[in-house]
Amino acid sequence: MQTNSNLRSQTSPQSYKKLGSQCIIKIKVDNLLQRHNLLKPESERVLTRPHRLYKDAVIDIFAVLSALMVGYLYKLYIADGVGVWILGSAVLLYAMLSVLHVFFTPSLGRRIGITLLSLLGILIFFYTLPLPTLATAGGTAFFFLFWGFIAARRQLDNSLHIRFFSAVRTYATKFVTAMVLLGIVLYFPEWSGNNFLLSRKNYDFFMSSTAGFTTRLYPGVNFDASFREFATDLIRQSAEENSEFQALSPEARHASLAQSVDSLLTSLKEKFGFVVTGEETARDAIYNFVNGFIERWRTQFGDFFVVGWLLVVFLVVRSFGALFVWVISGATFLAYETLIAANVIKIVSIDTNQESIEYT
To answer: What's the CA gap between 134 and 188, in Å, rounded?
Structure first.
């Protein structure tokens, strides 16, 4: 028995070394075969492209370019060179790319860099403004954009499934707030008594777009008619339910309407200091009245009115921005599904280990 055990102890290491050498030889041969093709003596190298790198670069470039387009079009918008719908389309494109950037770029440093470049692309067209104004506009917008990114990434990182619409609305809400504040701060130095909220070109576009609605609401009222005819039609419609007015003769009705219109023009002059000849169109008269009224308040109350007016503008534009958030969500979802269908992106499951603190 002892002889057999000694024999095993003596032979085992030799067989182990032999097996080990065989294993090593096999690995070397396999590596040799992988490096050299015996049928084709030249070595073959397989090069792979860093797909994620160039896809991220494409999204980054388009995000910055869309921000440049927003800045350029907004500059033209202030100068009456472009309509509000064109500007809104550019902002929508910038919002979609920014939302996709939130999904594809979890890196905080990279996101900060792209956000700063995008804001610089917008502000560069307003280089003539004072530096404190540009710093205020850029800093405020960056704060809300960064806040939206952090909040949206927190939702994505703490969810088992991709909560797409929840993350999009979280970021889009902050994005709209950032763009509204950025636009107000950049618009304020350009504000004059002749351009209070909407430029004249965009005011005319708005009136033309809503002409069908106002016609259904007030049939027979034409905003392109003279202000005297416009006021006469409004007073006639309100007086049709008056039995005493209906009892008058046609000549008496005409005289009563003319007297009411003259009284209205006199009241506008005495109470508001607004002179209306009655020959200008109703559209021009309404624009000049509101513009002059706001400018009078601006002169009377100074900085207090400016602060109040900016607050009113922010609330009005931000209320429309709430609807714009849904537009951003829908448009981004279509782009998201298109990228998945085109096999540009895919959804994968990942296993993560996470530590937590609990009581002993």
So the answer is: 12
